[in-house]
Amino acid sequence: MVEVTQLQMQTLERLFAAGFRPIAIPPYESALCVHRGECAAVLAPVENGGLRLLAPATVMVDGNLSVRLKRAAGDVFVWKKKEVAATAERLKELEAFRAELVGILEMRGMQ
Predict the structure, then answer these.
(1) Which residue range is the domain that position 102 belongs to?
(2) Which residues contact 20 (CB under 8 A, 6 or more apart)?
């Protein structure tokens, strides 16, 4: 069982209140992953007892974290051989997800 600091618990409560949900994503089952809609991020603890993004937020493809690639026909999010288009709507959702997530992670002990 992983110990969670008071600051991490407060951060998790704010994330859950904002609609973020925990998710197990291979091979990150032991990490803290959160998602909302199609977007997901992997979080890691920091020295002050808080949390930070371990990697940039991304879009889930087939329940897995994807990588954004540039293609001749336009950007796509890819996991293995499956791709989804990086549409304007999807990119807007991802940016909103990232901005709200970072905003919550940067709060310090606020209730």
Answers:
(1) 6-106
(2) 34, 35, 36, 101, 104
pLDDT at 4 over 70: yes
Q: Which amino acid is at 3?
A: E
- The verdict on residue 111 lying in a domain is no
Quote the pLDDT of residue 92: 98
Total of domains in the chain: 1
Helix spans in the chain (H): 6-17, 88-106
Single-letter residue type at 24: A
Length of the chain: 111
- Confirm whether pTM is higher than 0.85: yes
Is residue 18 within 8 A of residue 11, CB to CB? The reply is no
Between helix 6-17 and helix 88-106 the angle, nearest 10°, is: 150
Spacing of C-alpha 101 from chain mean position? 7
Listed residue (43, 41, 26) closest to 94, CA to CA? 41
